[in-house]
């Protein structure tokens, strides 16, 4: 029978982190970049929970993961408001075409 250990959590977290970084770097759509950021934050949460469980740190990993979830929710709300404002102004949300904001 297969035992799920710390290594399995770290592998899943590394895959999610890699996919998130890939989404941040390669996508032009601002919503897809935000989804990549959420993947990176979720991979960090998996690491916090896994090290909390297998490292005998008590509930500190769960508490930090809860703060990261709260931070991600606030980031998503503010970022989506900014993206909607950009869409209203420029009629697209491609991050490489929105360089007129500094004017």
The helix/strand series, from N terminus to C terminus, equals: HHH
In DSSP terms, counting alpha (H) and pi (I) runs of 4 or more, how many helices? 3
Number of strands: 0
Average of per-residue pLDDT values = 88
The helicity comes to over 70%
Poorly predicted regions are none
Class derived from helix and strand content: mainly alpha
Profile the largest sheet: none
Which fold name is given in CATH as the topology?
Helix Hairpins
The CA-CA distance between the termini, in Å, is 62 Å
CATH class: Mainly Alpha
The CATH architecture can be named as Orthogonal Bundle
In total, the number of domains comes to 1
Residue share in β-strands:
under 5%
Rg estimate, integer Å: 17 Å
General form: elongated
Descriptive overview:
The structure is a single chain. The chain has 103 residues and is mainly α. It has a single domain, classed as Orthogonal Bundle (Helix Hairpins). 75% of the residues lie in helices and 0% in strands. It has 3 helices and no strands. The protein has helices at residues 6-26, 30-54, 60-90. Helix 2 packs antiparallel against helix 3 (60-90). The longest helix is centred in the last third of the chain and has 31 residues, at 60-90. It is elongated. It starts with 5 loop residues before the first helix and ends in a 13-residue tail after the last helix. The model has no long low-confidence stretch (mean pLDDT 88).
């Amino acid at each position: 029978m297969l035992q799920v250990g710390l290594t399995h959590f770290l592998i899943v977290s590394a895959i999610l982190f890699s996919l998130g970084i890939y989404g941040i770097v390669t996508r032009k759509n601002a919503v897809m970049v935000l989804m990549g950021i959420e993947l990176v934050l979720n991979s960090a949460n998996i690491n916090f929970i896994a090290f909390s469980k297998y490292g005998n740190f008590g509930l500190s990993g769960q508490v930090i993961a809860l703060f990261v979830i709260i931070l991600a929710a606030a980031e998503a709300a503010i970022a989506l408001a900014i993206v909607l404002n950009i869409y209203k102004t420029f009629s697209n949300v491609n991050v490489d075409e929105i360089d007129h904001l500094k004017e």
